[in-house]
Amino acid sequence: MANALEHPIKKVMIICAKANIEDVYAALVMANGAVMEGIEAKVFFTFFGLDAITKNQMKKLHTATVGNPGLRMPGGLPFPTILGMLPGVEAGVSAMMKSQMEKLGIPPVDEFLELITAGGGEIYACKLAVEMFGLKKEDFSEHVKDIITIGQFYELAAGEGTQIIFV
Amino acid sequence: MAEKVYAGKTVSVTDDGYLTDPNQWTKEIAIEIAREEGIELTDKHFAVIDFIREKTLKGEALTIRTIGKSGVVDTKGFYELFPGAPLKKASRIAGIAKPSSCV
Predict the structure, then answer these.
(1) CA angle centred on B92, ends B79 and B82, rounded to 5°
(2) Which residue among A37, A114, A119 sits closest to B79, beta carbon to beta carbon?
(3) Which parts of chain A sit beneath pLDDT 70?
(4) ipTM of the predicted structure?
């Protein structure tokens, strides 16, 4: 506790490089949780993580039904990979996950971004990945503050009590 | 568990300063707790506090999202009224338990 008082976390810099529901939400929950505690939070979306802040993709995030050993059937039995390959299964599983989260009061991605930015958190897109995927500023959610380089990201990270978290 | 005197009334509080019994709460106590948090309460603050107390005493879990959708204040306004950690500060001032929500 003494350590908590002497060396509080003042800023979190969260990098999200994946488009799975679970990875995107891990980043968003951590960012929002920080803002709620009065900790400065900046989230940097890169590579496939850009889907989470791209207007056309942010409402269509999926979880992987192939190659996901943690995935189970509703009763707890293992989820057969071969089932996950069938058309529509991934979409169905993803929709189930989203409705489960909605029941717990976890907002959809666009509303989550709004919560984070309303609390002073900042959302960034990675310049390199944006160029790689041929995206433009207008393809992104209005909550995206800027498209920045990794160098700018480190500049924003400067200061005592900063933590960098990679999702 | 400890005791504290706010507005001439002795109340029991947790180690991090939250009232243990929301029924001991009064507006005068709220004003003094708010001063400890560096906030001078206005009618707008009290509108939010009333909403928080009403929902909590009904047993509903509170999140920043539900408060932002309450119609009393939007999320941005909530952060402005209780700067830093709004849900924690507002809960403490409203005399209810420390929030346990992750969103």
Answers:
(1) 15
(2) A119
(3) 1-4
(4) 0.91
